[in-house]
Amino acid sequence: FCRAHFLELNCEKDGKMVAMRASKEEVKSAMADLNLGDEHCSIAAINGFKSVVLSGDAHSIDQVITRLGCSHKDLGVEYAYHSKKITAAADAFKLKAEEILSGHIQASAMRDDCNVYSCLTGQQCPPSVFASAAYWHKQMISSVLFADCITSVVQPNSRVFFLELGMDNSLTSLINSISNNHKDALVACLSSLDRNASKSDLA
To answer: Crossing angle of helices 133-141/87-104, nearest 10°?
Structure first.
């Protein structure tokens, strides 16, 4: 099963997501000035000091953009991912996840001898945390703390290699930008696929 199934069944295709050249504080201040709560829009991702994604209904997001006058890019999606607007889908997802996890996976049986970092908390977590339906429910409707997560991984004097899995290198670019603040760390990034590659190249 996948979240797209529950989104289609439980949510209207009236959401919007916009990447903005603004800080978390600037966006929250603009929302407060406009009397916009989480039911209207919320910060879906914090990818850097001046790089956030706003998610919610189109009118509210347009108000924030006008208020801030910042550069932005519409992500072209139909659902307001990582916002309260998809709570109904997250609730249904949680019920199905609980059914699957109770029958196949015991959190106590999962290995805790490897380092895993969560973009929900922005910190290192024991792997057993991910065997919780509640975790994935919260992950669907909460902010992605990408910048905090990368900062947690890239410690002073650390040596880190990141591999991005997907058809783009957008995260690789973000990681490089965040890692530039750690001059004493050695960070290498590689994206696994090129979105411009031909089908024969990917075969």
So the answer is: 160
User: Considering Cα of 80, then 85, then 87, then 89, what sign does the dihedral take?
Assistant: negative
Q: Measuring CA to CA, how many Å separate 111 from each of 115, 129, 139? A: 10, 11, 21
What is this structure's pTM?
A: 0.86
Per-residue pLDDT for the chain (203 aa), expressed as one digit of tens each?
588 899 999 999 999 999 999 999 999 999 999 999 999 999 999 999 899 999 999 999 999 999 999 999 999 999 999 999 999 999 999 999 888 887 665 555 566 677 889 999 999 998 888 888 999 999 999 999 999 999 999 988 889 999 888 777 888 888 988 888 777 889 988 887 665 655 445 44
> φ and ψ at 55, to 5 degrees?
-130, 140
Q: Are 142 and 134 in contact (CB under 8 A)?
A: no
DSSP 133-166: HHHHHHHHHS-B-HHHHHHHHS-TT-EEEEEE-S
Burial of 22 (0-12, 13-18, 19+ CB in 10 A): buried
The arrangement of strands across the sheet holding 15-20 comes to: 41-48, 51-57, 15-20, 72-74
Backbone angles phi, psi at 124, to 5 degrees: -70, 140
DSSP character at residue 121 = T
